[in-house]
Give the backbone structure.
Amino acid sequence: MLEIRDLSVSIDGHAILTGLDLEIGPGEVHAIMGPNGAGKSTLSAVLAGREGYDVEGTVRFAGHDLLALEPEARAAAGVFLAFQYPTEIPGVGNAYFLRTSLNAIREANGEPPVDARSFLGSLRSHMEELEMDPSFSSRAVNAGFSGGEKKRNEILQMAMLEPTLAILDETDSGLDIDALRIVAAGIERLRSPERAFLVITHYPRLLDLVRPDVVHVLRGGRIERSGDAALAQQLEQYGYGPRPEPEAVGS
Amino acid sequence: MIPAAVAPSAAVEPSWRSDVRADAVRWLADHRPPTTRDELWRYSDVDALLEAMAADPADDQVDVDAPTIARLAGDGPANRLVLVNGRPIADLASRDGDTDVVEVLSLRPSDHRCPADSYRDLRHDDWFLATNRAAAHDLAMIKAPAGSALGAAHVVHVTAPAGHRPVAHHPTTLIRVEAGATVTVVESHVGLDGAAAVNASTTIEVGAGATLAYHRVEQGAAGSAHAGHVSVALGPDACLRAHSFTLGASTTRVTWDVVCAGDGSSVELDGLVFAGPSDHHDHLVTVDHRGSDTTSEQRFREIVGARARAAFTGRVLVRPGTTGTSAHQRNASLLLAPTAEADARPWLEIEADDVRCSHGATVGQLDDEAVFYLRSRGIPEWHARQLLIEGFASEVLESVDVAWLRHHLRDGLEQRRPAIEAAP
């Protein structure tokens, strides 16, 4: 579904990613971990189409040359990025924004606009599941939201837009235990054989709640190591450095 | 210099009216038109306004139908008066049963009734205002009798150029809210296509303890010039809740002159200005705090297109001997391109000690991060920009309590979309 080959990204001549390869199949949940500054957020930004990077390599997504598409076309093709720092949009109501977004994606895919009644019904039920107060549908997008409320709002958008590839950029950062549980449950509800996830995180605690199929370590601009969910636990224990050799223990 | 539009009326006028005209003509003979060297006109495109005003008077009878009025000025429950080129069109007037208490009428030049002392006695200090008073045809008059409540009136001034000849039009509105009354007034300035200059004057009296919600809407034809003057006198504990919209013409100067004469009077003024790609808009608001315990709030927002210019001067005068004055102003400009220009000028003359006063201005461009956020949600770039501009305007639009007007203004902004798309 997503196939990244030899992806190199630099900004103002400063190399951030250097030949990254990654493949994600339908229904899979991949986690990317790595130290600060390893380029995790850059990877998510480049996949979503943020400007300002020099990008080389290829990214294929569901038959598209992803890097050739405008950000809105990537969304229409089924890519969704949950932002680490969601942007505030003063004066634009949350529900109005979501309906505009949903209809723009539907229009790009040759579908008719969503029926207002079913839109509101689905918005209400998703908001209940995420334990969001109904007032968030009329408030301006992210304006004056707390950190946790912004993250819940990202998951709400993901639930409404039903992407085929969801990239979560440190969605767990800044969340308290309850908010983390609600957000994780929101992600789990969306897991399906057709939908893939790329979960970027610093901490394994999200991965206890959203079990990944594959865990990657991003370090030095590329995927350094990959493994199953157990790798996340090892990282917690030993850090991102090389795993100590058995004979070195206790010496 | 006396503009071409000032022509003695053939009608037999009552003496109060010919006195007002003669007075204005005398004043004009003694004064030159403003230039940008005059501090109060520094940011105006005075030359463009004066050039447009030199056109012949708009005195043709032009047919306008009700759907056109609804499209141009909106439609909702109100006692409505429509004047085309200064002449009332009886067929387009309407009355709303629920708000019947407000009187809305058109005073013909031959009408002997003298509407309001404030109109007769208005002091000239403005060339455009004097020109309006010299050249005005019918006077649109709104009167809310003492103690009346829940009235709504809508005055629509239509400028209708006939054929390809440019015209100058001098619409005049008088609003009198008597003691203890509460009334809502919408004053729309709209135009049919064609070159036109509008030089509008509105005189408002709000009596003791009365409340006026007043909406001034400029939605003239593209390319037209508009000079507007609003003069307000507030009695004791009188309250003015005002909105100023400048959304249509290409060159404007709108002057608000509010006098908080009575103790305890207050004014709250929200403005929204849309400057298309090459437009030039200038707004001057003066609040003169003459009474004690008076409050004023000025909040203006400008959306400034590619090579456009928008200026706002917020002037606050606090007179000696007054106490308990509170005066605040805030201006925010949204530049749609690096070549757009905005000027915000606070101008405070405070001659008393017991004053709480503040002012602030921000100038910004569309937030790239916000544009990317919206695009990442599938919204095309032009639409993302449009949403952000609407969001910027919505703080002002949402404060309009008249639902039909709010919808009409939203639609009006939507129709300016080509100007927004042309911006980057």
Remarks:
- The mean pLDDT of chain B is 91.
- The two ends of chain B are 42 Å apart (CA to CA).
- Chain B has one domain: 15-366.
- Chain B is about 20% helix and 40% strand.
